[in-house]
């Protein structure tokens, strides 16, 4: 169903209440008003008239598909900006496409709206979604909208395309590869601390920068596509749960080890200010999540081909699943699995 | 993320408790135990190792994609069989593929498990899902699993392929077309009444049949594919919200009207027994939902080409958006939009 509420019959009915979804002018109207205009920009959505969306994948390409969900009181708070929530659920999924080297073809959205949510909230969410659909050329193809007595949730499916045989995989790293990352690390985890009021001593500007990085990760589509359309061999993934833990997924899939150089890890000015004030925050930089930067392993020449998009931070070794860090003191220590827990 | 819990950092943490998700041997283990074995049957899932699933669409085909969600206490009850819930969320989505004439390539599942749910419940759900993945050749390609403090929810994305240019659309009906349906109508709505204890006087066998039809609709993939691979012009949709309401979607998209013959509407023996006992139940047959049968409009010869898969129940007219029913008394009356509300 495309934005049809109640495509499966309900055992419990939506109860009328003040200013909630049931008393607004109908849930179908709500969707038509806020989401149909976004979707109508895509031919594939068939103007939300049909049972499913129809896509013509570009010739010689494979389809990449991923889904990620956000739940209120788990992944976001009720006081957070609905537009930021929309863009976050878009971007965490687009980041998965980027990690495979795919370009977006479109997205489908399942929304479970708590019945007491205001229409303003939903309108702001739809605005944020629409902005990112445009910004990343990832049209809204369809979805499903349901009311829920529980916390609001969103599940976004992103579909992309990658030249056949060129998807970046986690199992393609080889000893001797250099390891590079896009952007800067640690901003997401430090931004979460700012939002949780557990990171003081920063300027207002730094705090704002870090929390914006938590909310608005930058899916590295351009870099991912550059890898996929080239001729090099690239292993890649996106760092969503922290470098220390995530890098082991490539180690495990490729049967390799890694060694990182702490001094080469790229930090934003705000993150640098934070760790200079409190070096213990390096634990968050290395072990915290929500960066959504790409971790890429490849021959030195193939990494060089990516130019300024990436920073080299280490090397792939033949020490299977052994991950080490050359610290600021030049000593080598194991970068523990649990990331910041054991750092 | 493929079945990675906490790909976005949580504001609230999962609280430990007795026999709930947090105290089991880890949420990732849970997924590995119950869902990875299902997913590993598909090469496209990359054994859940990568950021996204990778699919090679068959040459000369378009991609069809749809999503539908079920929420506890809205679309199912906590006492319902988890295996039935899994198969229902599969089948309502596969039915959307069938309505476009597509064959399944695979599915992705977002699960939001209430934290007090037992592992047995989840295991039974996974079993049901696995059964239908096999039965419909729709492999599990990936997904996302989150814990929620609220009602359990599922959102399933189904991907299929249809020969290019052959997807069945709602806007292709023409005056003079005959209208046909697959299977029998009304079983889903009557089955819901059985489950809600609001339909008495039936034999145990009839009651069981109707409730099984509510839980286990039959996605008409075979018939849909037959239409798409043929040469005829077919307009189609699946009847999820009831014939009376759903048929208007084709009328509106195609700019046509319809006339149905009540006596030709195919009923199961159980539904026939029900309406013979209480003719007012015709309102549920015509206006109730959850049948997931296909409504197909085409030239008489193209409908005939579908053989025994379908029953002719009416004709497309040039009376734009006018829907009439020839009743058992041979009188013509308008089949009201609201289905059973105004019948």
Q: Can you tag this structure with a few keywords?
A:
homodimer, 11 helices, alpha+beta, four-stranded mixed beta sheet, seven-stranded mixed beta sheet
Explain what you see.
The structure is a homodimer of 343-residue chains. Chain A is α+β, with helices and mostly antiparallel strands. The first copy, chain A, contains eleven helices and twelve strands. The first copy, chain A, has helices at residues 27-34, 36-39, 82-100, 119-135, 187-195, 204-215, 221-229, 243-254, 269-277, 282-287, 300-304, and strands at residues 53-55, 61-71, 103-114, 140-148, 153-163, 178-182, 235-239, 257-261, 293-298, 310-317, 323-326, 332-334. In chain A, the strands form two sheets. Chain A has a seven-stranded mixed sheet with strand order 7-9-6-10-8-11-12, with helices on both faces. Chain A has a four-stranded mixed sheet with strand order 2-5-3-4. In chain A, a hairpin with a 5-residue loop joins strand 11 and strand 12. In chain A, helix 3 (82-100) runs parallel beside helix 4 (119-135) and helix 3 (82-100) packs parallel to helix 7 (221-229). The radius of gyration of chain A is 21 Å and the shape is globular. The N and C termini of chain A lie far apart (48 Å). Chains A and B meet through strand 1, strand 2, helix 3, strand 3 and strand 4 of A and strand 1, strand 2, helix 3, strand 3 and strand 4 of B. Strand 2 (61-71) of chain A pairs antiparallel with strand 1 of chain B, so a sheet runs across the interface.
């Amino acid at each position: 169903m495309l934005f049809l509420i109640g495509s499966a019959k309900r055992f419990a009915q939506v109860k009328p209440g003040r200013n909630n979804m049931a008393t607004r002018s109908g849930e179908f109207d709500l969707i038509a008003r806020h989401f149909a205009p976004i979707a109508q920009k895509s031919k594939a959505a068939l103007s939300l008239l049909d049972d499913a969306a129809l896509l013509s994948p570009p010739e010689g390409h494979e389809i990449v598909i991923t889904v990620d969900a956000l739940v209120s009181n788990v992944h976001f708070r009720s006081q957070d900006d609905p537009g930021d929530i929309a863009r976050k659920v878009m971007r965490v999924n687009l980041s998965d496409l980027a990690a495979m080297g795919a370009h977006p073809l479109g997205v489908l959205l399942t929304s479970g709206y708590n019945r007491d949510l205001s229409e303003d909230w939903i309108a702001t969410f739809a605005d944020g979604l629409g902005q990112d659909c445009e910004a990343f050329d990832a049209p809204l193809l369809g979805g499903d909208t349901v009311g829920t007595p529980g916390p609001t949730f969103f599940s976004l499916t992103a579909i992309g395309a990658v030249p056949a045989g060129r998807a970046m995989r986690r199992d393609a790293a080889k000893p001797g590869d250099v390891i590079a990352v896009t952007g800067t690390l640690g901003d997401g985890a430090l931004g979460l601390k700012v939002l949780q009021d557990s990171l003081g001593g920063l300027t207002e500007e730094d705090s704002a920068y870090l929390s914006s990085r938590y909310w608005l990760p930058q899916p590295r589509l351009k870099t991912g596509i550059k890898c996929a359309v080239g001729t090099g061999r690239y292993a890649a993934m996106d760092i969503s749960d922290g470098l220390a833990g995530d890098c082991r997924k490539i180690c495990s899939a490729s049967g390799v080890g890694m060694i990182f150089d702490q001094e080469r890890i790229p930090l934003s000015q705000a993150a640098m200010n934070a760790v200079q004030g409190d070096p213990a925050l390096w634990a968050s930089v290395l072990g915290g999540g929500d960066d959504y930067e790409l971790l890429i392993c490849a021959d030195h020449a193939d990494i060089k081909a990516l130019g300024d998009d990436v920073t080299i931070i280490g090397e792939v070794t033949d020490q299977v699943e052994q991950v080490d860090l050359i610290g600021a003191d030049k000593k080598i220590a194991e970068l523990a699995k649990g990331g910041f827990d054991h750092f």
